[in-house]
Amino acid sequence: MEALLKLEGVTMDFGGLRAVNNFNIEIRKGELVGLIGPNGAGKTTVFNMITGVYVPTAGRIYFDGEDITGKSTNYIISRGIARTFQNIRLFKELTVLDNVMTSFHYQLKSNIFKAVFRSPGYREEEKRMVEEARDLLSKLGLLEYEDFIAGGLPYGQQRRLEIARALATHPKLLLLDEPAAGMNPQETQDLMDFIRMIRDEFGLTIFLIEHDMKVVMGICERIRVLDHGISIAEGPPEAIQKNPKVIEAYLGEAEE
């Protein structure tokens, strides 16, 4: 099967610092792949290159057969890549429903004139967006919170809402950057079940960064390990757990 996401020799330099060196990976449709490594290993830099935040110093990025290297973030979203962040990014003063609806803006066909004067065409689009947003919240177990202010939700539900906003863009590939950060053990277990569910329910391919080894080992089918910008291992969870280079990298971080 052809890779949905393919990175070839991707390198990122910041001045004299090489954050990621000659990174190669292929992720096939439907896979759930983890990217792990000590702090400063270059993991988020990889995500930033995939999503157009950074343009790689060298190498190419292909998505669904298209070279997206150097394309804008908005273009990459429109092609089917969505992302969440380690620090939850929500419009915390808006309702849960309105948060999801903000993700539909790129689909709007009405211009600003039609929106301001609430033309029949705009009202029809708005009605469709509300229905779609409520349907998505229902599938994700969040519909009962639709009128709640997002900032008042429990932490685990805020994380689900952030993922819901990403899913509203209809992605083929979902990038999750430390989704379990700040969660208690029960929230973490719920999140693991949630990630499995959305992968199956929405036919997603998922690439995630995570420090919580329970999450990584519990849900990822394949794991890539970065250390100082260099890939040091790849394989199924059971092999990664026993890999001497991986153990050394994490022990080194613990001793700092």
In a few lines, what is going on in this structure?
The chain is an alpha/beta fold and 256 residues long. The protein has helices at 43-50, 73-79, 96-102, 112-116, 120-139, 155-167, 185-202, 213-219, 237-242, 244-255, and strands at 3-14, 17-28, 32-36, 58-63, 66-67, 81-83, 173-177, 205-209, 222-227, 230-235. It folds into two domains: 1-80 and 171-256, P-loop containing nucleotide triphosphate hydrolases (Rossmann fold), CATH 3.40.50.300; 95-170, no CATH class.
Low-confidence stretches: none
Relative strand content: 15-25%
Task: Indicate the radius of gyration in whole angstroms.
Answer: 19 Å
Total strands? 10
User: Which quaternary structure do these chains form?
Assistant: single chain
**What is the level 1 CATH name of the largest domain?**
Alpha Beta
Main beta sheet: 6 strands, mixed
Order of helices and strands: EEEHEEHEHHHHEHEHEEHH
Nearest-integer average pLDDT: 90
Domain tally: 2
DSSP helix fraction = 40-55%
CATH superfamily of the largest domain: P-loop containing nucleotide triphosphate hydrolases
Termini, distance in Å?
42 Å
The CATH architecture of the largest domain is 3-Layer(aba) Sandwich
